[in-house]
Amino acid sequence: MKQRALWSAAAALGLALASGCGSATSPGSSGGSGDGLVVWDWKSGDASAAAYLDRAKADFAKSHPGVDVEFVAQPFDQYYTLLGAAIQAGRGPDVMLFNGGGQLRDRVDALVPLDEYVTRDRQRLAGWDAFTRDGKTYASPVTLQGHPLYYNKALYEQAGLDPERPAGTWDDFVEDCGAITGKTGAKCFGVGNKEGIGIQFFLSGIGSAVLTPAEYDDWIAGERDWSSPGVKRIFELWRQVDAGGLNNDGVNSTAMFNDAFAVFQSGRAAHVIGLMSDTGHWKDFAEFLDPADVGVMAAPVVNPEATPSLPYDGGIGYAVAKWTEDPKRAADLVRSLTSPEALGAFHADAGAITSDTTTDVSAGGPAVTAITAGIRTGKPALHVALSSKTIDLMGRLSQQLLSGSTTVDEAVAQLAASDAAG
């Protein structure tokens, strides 16, 4: 079986429009030497994904011997443009990788509902909601993605704080940050908002400590009151944290990926709202910090009526294109890509928090233990519930809040109008 590390964007687009990359077999074929499936993603070129793909292909070969599977790693910054061209042409890869949420839901007309094929995986895998629309499932989750609040235990110790008992309330948290900065010179938060991404992490990472559970659930359900005191408080905190000197300098000129994470892992900030999987996560941080010093804490309570929870959703997942000649065979490949053996390798090598609830994560250290413990009571991330248009606007307004060129009231009014427009 072949794996191609990277095609140029031009070649991939030409293929999508000219040859389609689709299956070569007729429907119902059991697979022969001329059979083939093509997968588009942005992961298969990564060395850390090699064992994962090998395990998935081996699993698939058990039931489909002789079927050639080709992985085509596309550049992520052009991925959805290339995929859109393939969809418009009505031909392209048989299987494709998606981020959970809007990127998939906006394209379900080009996908095969997988419900009849993945029944046996329902209980084992988590994160399905991010890959569903109107009650139908269009991809199987590979990873879970969320926004834990990481902290550097070594800096806590240097400041004379108990690293095993981080602050539970916002006021105590700010006081501890003052002690850390005073003793070590490290700032409280590592933040990057050059692309307007930092506010997404802040909204979801801190939101459950501000909104009541009912307000949080209403937000996820689409009943968002942008003028409520809780929502305004989140955006006020965003501005106040920076104005109070708790962030690294130059947040609006610092890239979230990966400059803000570098601030944390270099010890120049005591906390960062990071990711569970892929990058900016526990495994990355442990390459620079002692793994035992990478802590995960609950968001400090701002509103006594709030209940902090881990914000997470299905991260990435594989879907089947409507034009594939044999949907069941393509769905079997998706199932192999989410098999226990494959996902176990992905966790071990890439540090992914996979969708498989049976994966042994005991070797991941205390940070992984804390993250996985939070999954049971976790809730969807607040920013993931928003449209891409509103998220883009929120990014621009968050920069203006930090620069002082807009107010919280003005910002939430604009966001409410954008959200209502859909």
From TrEMBL:
Q: Signal: is it a keyword of this entry?
A: yes
Source superkingdom: Bacteria
Going by the UniProt record, its keywords in alphabetical order are: Signal
**Signal sequence region:** 1-24
Under the heading InterPro entries, the entry gives: Bact_solute-bd_prot1, SBP
The record's Gene3D superfamilies line, in alphabetical order, gives: Periplasmic binding protein-like II
Q: Which protein, by its recorded name, is this?
A: ABC transporter substrate-binding protein
